[in-house]
Amino acid sequence: MKESDILKAIMDLLAARGFRVFRRNVMGVIPVKGGAIRLGQRGMADLYGWEIGTGRHIEVEVKKPGARTDRKRALLQEIWIDRAYADGCIAFQADSVNGCEKKLADFGY
Fold first, then answer.
1. 15-51 tens-digit pLDDT
2. Residue 38's domain is classified under what CATH number?
3. What DSSP designation does 57 have?
4. How many angstroms separate the Cα of 18 from the Cα of each of 75, 77, 101?
5. Could you tell me if 23 and 11 are in contact, meaning their C-beta atoms sit under 8 angstroms apart?
6. Helices (H), the chain
7. Number of domains observed in the structure of the chain
8. What span, in angstroms and rounded, lies between the C-alpha atoms of 100 and 109?
9. Range of the domain at 67
């Protein structure tokens, strides 16, 4: 199973649980005269959105089980999730729908 398949399944689960979620493409770069513009900040989670009705923000970093991530990139992603959590967001990393359900349960969902 590809990470994109896991990501889509997690998006479907979150939508079914009352969240409006969006895919974020952080690695994208747009070339411009004299340089480039990065789409997003390094470390941002793959998914973001809010709970419908309350507006509570959610950030989810999706990983393929067993996949390796560059150490610096993984650290930046961990920092992003930790900061979002510290600021009161629902924020976690998930590698499956089942893992996502368990994390949501930790937040009372």
1. 999 999 999 977 667 788 888 877 778 899 999 999 9
2. 3.40.1350.10
3. E
4. 30, 25, 13
5. yes
6. 3-16, 71-86, 97-106
7. 1
8. 11
9. 3-106
